[in-house]
Write a structure and sequence with these properties.
Structural class: alpha+beta
CATH topology of the largest domain: Jelly Rolls
Largest sheet: 6 strands, antiparallel
Helix content: 40-55%
Number of strands: 11
CATH class of the largest domain: Mainly Beta
Low-confidence stretches: none
CATH architecture of the largest domain: Sandwich
Strand order of the largest sheet: 2-9-4-7-10-11
Radius of gyration: 20 Å
Strand content: 15-25%
Mean pLDDT: 90
CATH superfamily of the largest domain: Jelly Rolls
Distance between the termini: 39 Å
């Protein structure tokens, strides 16, 4: 089965994404993305899948994947009890790390790490233990402290003993084939056309399906109905725009595809528990007080 495309979002005032999530969660599925990823399991046990590799995981499981390498972690929980935080995730683009190496030649020492990650890298539990405080701190860090933690993590992983590549020698990701998937075509189209009016019938026609068939397939692969997914994506992008402080809330409303300000405010409040203006104020306070959550 082709993996699903995940749209990785990095804030406009940041170079990489650092976050955590629980289980179950919308990205917990067989998926890929063009960005590098470092993932540390903090709770639960189960099976993980990297390309054509299958293994067991437990807390301390630390894996790095390269661009477009499909992956997934499936937790085994008694009675399907949800978990508040299952893992910590760090994601960064090839463009970012390549630009960084041009500015700082010393970073060329990570080339071997980046190359090996294209096959998936499993680190030892000891390295996972050392990486955990760095990755936890990265979630809330701001400014130079954030860059410092990122470089410390790369340094740790580059020098880590006992790391091993996961996929077989003949395995190679095929993102062009992955994108031939009807749902991945739809997800990419939504991302590109987010600012315009999007209709489920339009996406069904694009993928050559009936509206009912598209609706079932889309919900199965994303975990959300079409309208909810689009609104969630729009609010996610609007949060990034709100943090840079340059566009007005009205401009952001229309830039992300909402047709009126009241609908934007209502959707934002439903998802974030506050208005867009409050969100911007909170972010400004958080930036001036980095210790805040």
């Amino acid at each position: 089965m082709n993996p699903d495309l995940e749209l990785v979002s990095v804030r406009s005032d940041e170079s990489f994404a650092a976050w955590s999530h629980g289980y179950p969660y919308r990205t917990v599925r067989w998926h890929f993305h063009p960005e590098y990823e470092i993932q540390l399991i903090t709770e639960t046990t189960g099976k993980f899948f990297i390309g054509d590799y299958i293994g067991d995981f437990a807390p301390g499981n630390l894996v790095m994947t390269g661009p477009n390498l499909p992956h997934n972690w499936v937790s085994e929980l008694p009675d399907n009890q949800p978990v508040a935080e299952r893992c910590i995730v760090l994601q960064f683009s090839s463009e970012f790390i390549n630009n960084a190496m041009q500015v700082f030649p010393e970073l060329h020492s990570v080339l071997s790490l980046l190359s090996d990650s294209r096959s998936g890298i499993l680190f030892t539990p000891e390295t996972g233990l050392l990486a955990r405080p760095l990755m936890q701190a990265l979630i809330d860090a701001r400014g130079f402290r954030r860059v410092q933690l990122f470089l410390s993590l790369l340094d740790l992983l580059s020098d880590a003993a006992g790391r091993r590549r996961l996929t077989s020698a003949g395995y190679s990701p095929d993102p062009v084939n992955y994108m031939s998937s009807k749902i991945n075509l739809a997800i990419a189209y939504i991302s590109q056309k987010m600012a315009s009016e999007l209709r489920e019938s339009e996406l069904a026609e694009l993928t050559g399906q009936s509206i009912s068939s598209f609706s079932r397939a889309f919900r199965k692969h994303t975990g959300l109905p079409f309208v909810s997914y689009v609104n969630q994506l729009r609010i996610k992008v609007s949060c990034e725009l709100l943090t840079n402080g340059r566009l007005s809330i009205t401009d952001i409303c229309f830039k992300v595809g909402f047709n009126n300000l009241s609908n934007f405010n209502r959707q934002f409040l439903a998802q974030k528990g506050m208005s867009p203006s409050k969100f911007r104020q909170y972010d400004e306070v958080r930036l001036s007080h980095p210790a805040m959550p």
